Amino acid sequence: MRLRHIEVFHAIMQVGTISGAAQVLHISQPAVTKVLQHAELQLGMPLFERVRGKLYPKPEAHRLFAETEKLNRDLQGIRRLAASLKGRAVETVRLVSTPTLAISVLPQAMTAWRREFAQTRCELATYHTSEIVNALRLGEADLALSLQDPRHPGIVAEPIAQGMLTVMAPSGTWSEAECAQPIGPEGLTGELIGLADNDPLGEMVVASCEAGGVTPVFHTVVQTYQIARSLVEAGAGTAVLDPFTAASASAAKVQCRQWAPAMPVQLFLLTASHAPLSHGARELANAIGATARACLEKGCQ
């Protein structure tokens, strides 16, 4: 059966008459009759019994309807999409991000992007990096943000901003002169807030400390960078964090120093290798990169 045959067949199955199908499809009754006759001729059997102007489907029609229903839905979806594209319908950009970047970088970036893309629909979600890879590969997201390069053959990781590993402490912990100098493992004193054992940044910090002959003791361990930042802002201790989370903290509540030895932390734009970005998505990525770099330049004092 051709696509037009399926459309007419489904309309008749739903309304039960030639005239009703014609109204549903916005075509003439003779056109519906002609298409139905052609479909039955191709199939080599009648699909309906005609009784006093009404059509009653035969068992073969019910079986055919069950098999072609999904195809008909797909066809209608394609027609709606084509009509939307023709009418310049609202574009949808699907962005996923790790939680820390969704809070530290995205709000300002989205505000800047909206000035040029006021009508574009944007769907935001937060995933961990392993989940982000799956979302991109399955086509459930257009672009993503992470502090990790997943090094996956189907994912393109584009660095769009870079800062340095940062130590953040409650305001008043260090003098102004000390804040201007990097701080190493030996300088970590007082209550320390650690990151989960399986966190890449947390592993980096512990490895750096051990290389310097220091074994840090964390009485408080958190799962997310935002929680660590909030605890530092509340005066609960000192944490070693990514520069984007540190830069988004309240400058009145915290102080920041660069970790020594210097360790770069990159913000990656992740996309599926087989799916180029739309104009709106690319401009959103540009806005995120610009916002992240400006955030790092401002930093926390």
Automatic annotation (TrEMBL):
All copies of domain HTH lysR-type, residue ranges: 1-58
Origin: domain of life: Bacteria
SUPFAM superfamilies from the UniProt entry: Periplasmic binding protein-like II, Winged helix' DNA-binding domain
Signal peptide: none
Keywords: DNA-binding, Transcription, Transcription regulation
Entry-linked Pfam families: HTH_1, LysR_substrate
Record-stated family: Belongs to the LysR transcriptional regulatory family.
Name this protein carries in UniProt: LysR family transcriptional regulator
